Amino acid sequence: MSQALTVARPYARAAFAVARDEGNFAAWSDALGFAAQAAADPRVAALLPNPQLAQADAVALLAPAGASESFARFLTVLADGRRLPQLPEIAGLYEELRAESERLVKARVTSATALPAGELEAIRAALKKRFGREVEIDTAIDESLIGGAVIDAGEVVIDGSLKGKLNRLQTALAN
């Protein structure tokens, strides 16, 4: 495990605990996503370690409009500990905790062309049956796959792309 994840884990757990206590997982997801995206921007990332940047200014920069007071306090704690640059890792770990709590599997379906809604629903149903959980699907297009799709559901990756099949065939023929 990388050191960044080790440092981020307790903060993600704390954010998750506050969101659970407030019953506001979605708002915290949105706020953390916004703050993580802002912190990952190279221009902002260059500012965060600057000792001349006041804590209040850093929090104002990273908090989305309408963020809760508890989220602003969370950012202040991160600023106190000089942990604002870890926001992308914190947000990712928070989302994992939330998905586990809500018994949700997030899957990314990458295909060569846009898939019809019926096919996506069939994939969702098959994944729901396999994992015994609700499934949230995100789609992407990668024309280099030629045909078929790659389904990435965390620890399970199913490569049904033509490109993947050709690579496996090439490997089998080379051996």
Biggest beta-sheet profile: 4 strands, mixed
**Strand line-up of the largest beta sheet:** 2-1-3-4
> How much helix, percentage-wise, in residues?
55-70%
Structural class: alpha+beta
Would you tell me the overall average pLDDT? Answer: 91
Total strands: 4
Helix and strand run: HHHHHHEHEEEH
Strand content: 5-15%
Please give the alpha-carbon distance between the first and last residues. Answer: 34 Å
Computed CA radius of gyration, to the nearest angstrom: 20 Å
| Number of continuous helical runs | 8
pLDDT under 50 segments (min length 5)?
none
The best one-word shape is elongated
Keywords for this structure?
175 residues; 8 helices
